[in-house]
Specification:
Length: about 45
């Protein structure tokens, strides 16, 4: 699917993210390199 505007893409991404369970979200974002990067930014 192609999107004509950034807003349309953002809406679709929001819809898809809303469908994820907490377990799936944790598994996708729990990679050590992601956690290390966030820790380096002092955001964790």
């Amino acid at each position: 699917t192609l999107f004509k505007t950034l807003a349309q893409l953002q809406t679709k991404v929001d819809q898809l993210l809303d469908q994820l369970t907490p377990e799936v979200t944790a598994s996708v974002t729990g990679y050590p390199f992601i956690l290390d990067a966030l820790s380096a930014l002092n955001t964790v």
